[in-house]
Amino acid sequence: KVASAQGARRQTLSADKSSLAAGAAAPVANVTWPYRPIQVAVTVTRAQVKARAHLDQLVRVGTRDVQLLVQARLEGREGKLYSAAFALPEGYELLNAVGQAVADWYVQPTPKGRLLHVNFSTGVTSTNLALVLVAETAPGERLTAPMVPALDDDGKPMEPVAGRLAVALAESLQARTPSTETPRAVGPGGLG
Q1: Strands annotated E in the chain
Q2: Omega into 37 within 30° of 0, i.e. cis?
Q3: Tens of pLDDT along the chain (192 residues)?
Q4: CA 79 to CA 26: how far, in whole Å?
Q5: Dihedral sign of CA atoms 121, 87, 69, 181 in order
Q6: How many of the other CB atoms lie within 10 Å of CB of 90?
Q7: Under 8 Å between Cβ of 86 and 66
Q8: Which of 23, 124, 128, 150 has the most CB atoms within 10 Å of its CB?
């Protein structure tokens, strides 16, 4: 939006937008000036995008460490995604965040915990990310499966979220599940 233009005349935008590529910037105003100096104030905003996440998470429990592997599929609805955020579980170190559209990433400590911010090289309507985390301590008698929730623009867990959680144990370990929250059993044939 062009908020103001001093020393200039606003003209009607041309209806021919064929010169613009799909997904490219769109003109918001056409301003000409008969003399100089000219001053134009522009207001730039990014449209709110509704996002959806599908998170498949594998917890590999070994005798010396616990690894968390996350495959995240993000989809932008009503617009493009330029970044993503995730809450990291306490005690786990992020080793890497990779994906086709990932430009860079960083971990931000906050009073509520550590957040992972991933910036994309371009706006995307859908993308896949792989996250690798590790806790280099032997699991105790009781292990709560760590989760990496996707966050919305307000820092709250994204809704709706779909996904799967799998736990793999080292050959020398045994496990049982004393409690779960909203699980649905999936047989080995349903994991593909």
Answers
A1: 2-6, 9-11, 30-32, 39-42, 50-61, 66-77, 81-87, 93-99, 102-110, 113-124, 126-135, 150-151, 161-169
A2: yes
A3: 555 555 555 556 655 555 444 455 566 666 666 666 666 666 777 677 888 999 999 988 888 888 999 999 999 887 899 999 999 999 999 999 999 999 999 999 999 899 999 999 999 999 999 999 999 877 777 777 788 999 988 888 888 778 888 888 887 777 666 666 665 655 555 555
A4: 14
A5: negative
A6: 9
A7: no
A8: 150
Distance CA 3, CA 158 (A): 33
Q: How far apart are CA 20 and CA 99, in angstroms?
A: 28
Dist. CA 102–CA 107, nearest whole Å: 14
> What is the rounded distance in angstroms from the CA atom of residue 190 to the CA atom of residue 58?
15
DSSP string over 30-49? EEE-SSS--EEEE-------
Residue type, 69: L
pTM given for the model: 0.69
What residues have CB less than 8 Å from 176, skipping those under 6 apart?
none
Bridge partners, residue 113, by sequence: 110
